[in-house]
Amino acid sequence: MECSTKKVKILRSIEEIDAKLHQIWNSPTSYRKPKYPRNSDIPIYPMTHTPKGTCLIFNHRIFDCQELEERANTGLDAHALSVAFGYLGFQVRRYDDMKKQQIMETLKSTADEDHSSRDAFFCIFLTYGQETSIWAKDEKFPANDVFNMYVEDQCPSLRDKPKIFLLQTCRRIGKRPFNVMGRSTHGRDFLIAFTNAPVCHSELKNSLYMQSFSQALLRFGRYFEIEDIIMKAISMIRFYFKAENIFDERIDVGLNYPSQVFQLYEYLYFFPENVQEVRS
Description:
The protein has helices at 2-25, 74-87, 100-111, 144-147, 208-220, 226-243, 249-252, 276-279, and strands at residues 53-59, 91-96, 120-130, 133-135, 140-142, 163-170, 190-197, 259-262. By secondary structure, it is of the alpha/beta class.
């Protein structure tokens, strides 16, 4: 009976997410243009193909390590991201509770694909992690193992195309969020954003950052650049904290604030044809 009740609650939550994202995508506010022009000297990545690219989502709820608690409701984050990137025109592939070898095989097979008819690549991890390592279902591994799959000599068909990596990594050790700043060592056209939380889904319904990011993608994705969209998501979180009168230091020090490594050589707009007038 308890299991059935839990499934009903999850289905209702999924329906709520679908309705919310559909409303945002079709709202007149999603057509709101930036109030400032971007630097016209910096080019924009082309977005001319259908689908625009591949979006991999590695979602981890349960782990073999007994010290790692279940990441309850992480499936809601994965679902919201899948819906959002689907609206934006990406081919979404979601994988749940994969072991390390399975992850590596999936990343390698995707890197070996011909991406010449795609414009961008996204890879998202929802899991546990610390510093520069992330957890698969069975063990942790260096985050660099993920990024290195898509450097130019390993994935030549993504050369000169944006490669975006988003890592939502919860942690159980109560230290400040790690901070990965500066230039990427993986070459050009990489954007890597980490968010490392001191508390996880057992204490909140789901990840505020990923839910806010999913909503920001649809609210601002028609006209805003990816860096702006990430910052918009952070602003949405801060507004939530203020509205809910949340002042818990564990949350405030880094639950949803991503550190970013920007190496993109061009602006990334999902609909560049919409922003030409903004830059003129």
